[in-house]
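Exercise 7b. Backbone tokens:
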């Protein structure tokens, strides 16, 4: 099995390494500038005859490696432990996440998509005994992750969800529901729910018909509305300007609550507008608890071996080396 990171969202922290590199390069130029001002080349050479540029570079490399190891320790590389059968009493849940460009609207901060991500992370913490799948949709819907109890894998998929994953724009809620339903065991008429997270911007008439069909198959749809009914403009990342309609007017993206409320009511689910994340997570978890749970045995990786302590040890080793390593030339008798 390959290594994975417990806190993959912290990977950009490696960018901090650019700062000491830039400072090191600046320091070299600064030293050269100062030496030129001191005097002639022969005088400077005599003054710094014991100084070793190679040792100075090596000390910096030790320091950079120590910092790299410390960042790696915080991110915590993990490796799945041995597979074992785990008894669970839970349900199957497919999270259908809207990744259309309207989800970049900033009527809720930092934007609709990021707010949805934060909600899903919190919800996953409440779904330890449930299997979770993920569908991403815009103009088309795609099953990104089949049902699994591997919470770490789910978080990685959510972290990577963006508006560029689905090239075709739109909000095909009906197709998203159909794709989500395909992830369930078709022989079961219970133990399953879809959590639909969207601004519902495009009124998909097919969605209501599909919702009724899913309800008859025992699927509960809980809907999460992201955005505001008043709406706001959308910044197009490709042009870094407001998205405009055919008449050249700025497009106002509004939350379509009517469709989402109807879908949840039809399927014995609930609708919530995503404002207070902990409160919405609590309501969804309470609603999911009304579904009868199945007793299953899953072959699943539940225990992960962490290796952060190795990286801490490596960081300490390089820090000691950096401290003890001289900038002067080695005196070899």
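Sequence design result:
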């Amino acid at each position: 099995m390959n290594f994975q990171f417990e806190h993959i969202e912290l990977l950009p922290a490696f960018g901090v390494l650019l700062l000491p590199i830039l400072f090191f390069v600046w320091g070299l130029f600064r030293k050269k500038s100062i030496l030129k001002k001191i005097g002639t080349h022969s005088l400077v050479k005599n003054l710094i005859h014991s100084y070793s540029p190679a040792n100075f570079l090596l000390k910096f490399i030790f320091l950079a490696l120590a910092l790299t190891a410390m960042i790696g320790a915080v991110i915590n590389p993990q490796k799945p432990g041995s597979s074992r059968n785990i008894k669970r009493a839970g349900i199957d849940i497919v999270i259908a996440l809207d990744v259309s460009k309207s989800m970049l609207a900033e009527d809720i901060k930092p934007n609709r998509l990021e707010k949805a991500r934060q909600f899903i992370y919190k919800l996953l913490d409440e779904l330890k005994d449930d299997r979770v799948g993920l569908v991403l949709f815009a103009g088309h819907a795609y099953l990104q992750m089949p049902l699994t109890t591997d919470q770490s894998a789910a978080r990685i998929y959510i972290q990577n969800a963006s508006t560029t994953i689905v090239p075709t724009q739109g909000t095909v809620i009906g197709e998203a529901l159909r794709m989500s339903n395909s992830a369930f065991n078709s022989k079961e008429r219970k133990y399953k729910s879809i959590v639909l997270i969207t601004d519902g911007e495009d009124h998909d008439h097919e969605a209501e018909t599909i919702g009724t069909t899913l309800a008859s198959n025992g699927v509960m749809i809980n809907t999460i509305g992201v955005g505001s009914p008043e709406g706001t403009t959308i910044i197009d990342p490709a042009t870094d300007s407001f998205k405009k309609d055919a008449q050249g007017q700025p497009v106002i993206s509004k939350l379509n609550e009517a469709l989402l409320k109807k879908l949840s009511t039809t399927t014995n689910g609930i609708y919530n507008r995503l404002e207070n994340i902990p409160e919405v997570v609590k309501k969804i978890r309470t609603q999911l608890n009304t579904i009868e749970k199945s007793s299953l045995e899953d072959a699943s990786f539940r225990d992960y071996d962490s290796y952060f302590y190795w990286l801490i040890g490596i960081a300490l080793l390089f820090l000691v080396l950096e401290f003890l390593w001289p900038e002067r030339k080695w005196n070899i008798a």
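Instructor comment: The longest strand covers residues 141-148. The CA atoms of residues 133 and 146 lie 5 Å apart.
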